[in-house]
Amino acid sequence: MSRDPCDGCGKPVPISGGIANLWSFSGDEAGGMTLEFDSDGSEHFLCFDCIERLPDDPTAADVAALEEAEARDDD
Fold first, then answer.
1. SS3 for 73?
2. What confidence score (pLDDT) does residue 71 get?
3. DSSP result, 1-26
4. Which one, out of 17, 43, 62, 63, has a CA that is 20 to 30 A from the CA of 8?
């Protein structure tokens, strides 16, 4: 299973599928999903924890706020 960084917190998130699981039927699950915003066409891959932190009807600005909050927490 491969991993991609979350656009909100930067932590590596498992991605299901791909060549790593070609011969495996172990039922690996993804740890996040990609959100696409129609308003600006942007896509953001977020872990489920970051998705839960978003408000109802989120925008790309809400995702950016997650990134800024994480950067402040790291300092």
1. helix
2. 76
3. -EEEE-TTT--EEEE--SGGGTT--S
4. 17
What is the distance between the alpha carbons of residues 44 and 54, in angstroms, rounded to a whole number?
12
Residues β-bridged to residue 36:
43
Which is it for the CA torsion 7, 44, 57, 62, positive or negative?
A: positive
Please state, in angstroms and rounded to a whole number, the distance separating the CA atoms of residues 66 and 37.
16
Beta-strand relationship, 32-36 and 43-47: antiparallel
Cβ density class 6-42: b for 16+ within 10 Å, e for less: bbbbeeebebeeeeeeeeeeeeeebbbeebeeeeeee
Per-residue pLDDT of the chain (75 residues; tens, 9 = 90+): 678 999 999 999 988 765 655 555 555 577 899 999 998 999 999 999 999 999 999 999 999 999 888 777 766
